[in-house]
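re the bet — no i am not wrong, look at it urself. input seq straight from the record:
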Amino acid sequence: MPDINLTIDGHKVTVPAGTLIVEAAKTVGIEIPVFCYHHKLDPVGACRLCLVDFSPGPPRPQTACTTPVAEGMVVRTQSAMAVQARADILEFELVNHPLDCPVCDKGGECPLQDFTFRHGYPTSRIDGPRLHFKKPIPLSENIALDRERCVLCYRCTRYYDEIAWEQELTVAQRGVQSFITSQFDQPLQSNFSGNIIDLCPVGALTSRVWRFESRPWDMTHTESVCSKCAVGCNTTMWQRRGQLVRITSRENDDIDEGWICDRGRFDYTDVNEPSRLRTPTIRGAKSTWADALAATAGGIKGKGAKLGISLPADLTNEEAFLFRRLLDGPLKGAKVKMHGRTAIPAPAGPTMPIKEIDDARVIVVVASDIENDVPIIDLRVKKAVSKRGAKLIVIYPEGVDLDRNPHTVHIRNAKGAAAEEVRKLSSHELLQNPGGPVAILFGDGHGSEDMNDLASACGALAEQVGGKEMPLYRATNERGALALGVAGWDSLDGVEALLSWGPPPTAGVPTSVRFLAAWDHLPRDGYDKAAVVLPATTFAERQGSYTNLEGTVQFLRPPVAINPPLKEAWEVLNELGAALGLELDYPGIFPIQRDAAAKTPALAALAQTPSPEPVTGPVLVGPAHP
């Protein structure tokens, strides 16, 4: 489609056909205030705050969020008519809005505050009594609703309808009495509910986990990556006085589109847990790092196949690289098992990028409940279906979230028989003439499938229909660990010594274990029997990188400083190597990255983009993006 030429406040603008006026104005730095409009939701023109004046057109204010640009259009955002119209709308919005700014969690990053100062009347003409609701309403254990602050922009209800497909929120009553409520007053159950907090342009929806904790200007914020699954959603982590107090989404259209699941948003309070392990212990008594690592080395060295090692799901590439050095040397022959990993083998070559799901005409999801396994991939599939008209086939034994679409073709296979069903798909009518790209997303059925057989069947189907495959790894850095050869799948039964890094093995510590070294950030059941306990850092204190399920390497930036005697994992591995007789003399994270990049082609990005330093000083936070 041809580009469109128009003028906005005297600025010549050229944008693609179909661009809305509000988006065209952003290209020349002109702010048109919005509440209901959001670039990831369908425009509705509900709040009317984006009123502008343009010609040719009717001689009255028009909504910039629903009007596409036209050739030769002249838009005036600062005409007397447009300025007065926006001020009038803000006055109406504030008629019943409470004066909660001193105690509202949105204070300091609230578009309503900012727009009132920039676009509203200097004084209010309203002196009547305000409408009051009961407050706050606990929508769930994580989210509170303050109905008095709501401006009825419907972003939250539209998000549930358009993005999450879950319809958990609705509008009750009519007119001035209207308010947002959950369906049948039931608690929100969605795994994606926290996104409505970021979407809300006022303080109506707030996090109960973060409520009354701090102010934006009282925190520093750091760009990082989520550690809760293999998608690698981009996040912003907020720190105050040495504690992680909030996690919000950070838009990366190639991966997450600005959404994160509730695990990534709310599961961070263990970082601030008062009972955190901070000092090494030997047989329950406080120890130095040198003595604790010497005791650990003494208990695990030379055990061969009698040594078991349990690795955390969020092992970084740098930690995995150092650990590979230990497995090739003094810990050779050890049995290794990684928390949360799938049985999917390492990919033989490039796999389908996440963003290409958008353009798929047919999507096949095999052996995975993606809402729980890789949540944001679930939203991406829903987008392709609802916004782009993709057809959907699911092969899974049980009901899944994607069944909310009445046109989903759900083949309920017997456990272990997914590969057989995949082989039948080449003759399915949806794949006979797909009309465009085919995406084949496959998991491991949580260990129920023969993955060599299933991977072969998915590869053959992709070749037959001209599709692309995406293996759905679950563990945070499973793909990076596979590239380095440490994503173990061994049974730990029968081992006599165990190094448990992260939570204890899912099946528990084997009864055969005579020596246990635990390396964790929290005290767990059974650690009273550990010979050595080493304190670990969390994702909020860690430098390094993750490789997500599509193979993209992304860097972590720690928002929280490490307080001695805690040490970063790469330091501990250096010292453990020395105690085992292997010199791992790396002075910092950058040399590890350069070495890993040189020796592992899948990690070449580590040499191209050095890991950023953490933010240490105060960060000034400006107005939130509307």
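see?? DSSP finds 17 helices and 27 strands in the chain. told u. also Residues 611-626 have pLDDT under 50 and may be disordered. so pay up
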